[in-house]
């Protein structure tokens, strides 16, 4: 599966990228020099296009500015969960390749890394959709338990952006859907640009939505 280019993804989410969304290349170079490592190309490409798109990158989980990147057990930490309970890191350095895996660890002293996504580009795109469906980057959101027809509808009419730790993220123009095993069962988190488009997803995805407003 090819990762959707970031400009295309932001466009389909109704938020075209702007020049001010780009991180200065010198900021990345300074961070790399400070950490004595090289950021993978997939991570660099995202930051050079959208690292300052804070209405998407920091609305829930926090994509860290390069000045706040850190190295932990050989992983370049670039994303923190909103309560800083877990952090995400990517393999880095010349041997990592252009689009290496992303890992998760808990904060604290006893840390173990667990693989969440095979490719950094897929991880970033998927997490941007999660920021919309769960983190309210899109103005209207809700969730509900998946119905018998939910997965079929998503596979038939939506584009799969990627999978992170078994959470599947889908998009279509102005709408997102994230399907994930939750404490009460298989749940779908949706976001939309308008209230009308949000509630239209009840029938379209066979789900009884519970408003998050």
UniProtKB/TrEMBL annotation:
SUPFAM superfamilies: SMI1/KNR4-like. InterPro entries: Knr4/Smi1-like_sf (IPR037883). It comes from the Bacteria. It comes from Acidovorax soli. This is Knr4/Smi1-like domain-containing protein.
């Amino acid at each position: 599966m090819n990762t959707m280019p970031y400009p295309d993804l932001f466009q389909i989410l109704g938020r075209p990228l702007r020049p001010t969304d780009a991180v200065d290349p010198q900021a990345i170079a300074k961070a790399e020099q400070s950490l004595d490592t090289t950021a993978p190309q997939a991570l660099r490409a995202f930051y050079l296009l959208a690292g300052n798109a804070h209405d998407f990158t920091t609305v829930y989980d926090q994509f860290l500015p390069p000045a706040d990147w850190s190295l932990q057990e050989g992983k370049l930490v670039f994303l923190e969960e909103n309560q800083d309970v877990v952090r995400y890191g990517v393999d880095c350095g010349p041997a990592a390749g252009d689009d290496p895996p992303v890992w998760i660890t808990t904060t604290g002293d006893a840390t173990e890394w667990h693989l969440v996504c095979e490719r950094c580009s897929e991880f970033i795109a998927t997490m941007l959709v999660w920021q919309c469906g769960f983190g309210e980057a899109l103005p209207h959101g809700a969730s509900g338990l998946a119905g018998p027809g939910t997965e079929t509808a998503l596979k038939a009419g939506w584009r799969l952006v990627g999978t992170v730790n078994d959470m599947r993220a889908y998009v279509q123009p102005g709408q997102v859907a994230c399907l994930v095993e939750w404490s009460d069962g298989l749940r779908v988190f949706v976001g939309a640009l308008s209230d009308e488009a949000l509630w239209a997803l009840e029938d379209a995805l066979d789900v009884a939505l519970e408003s998050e407003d």
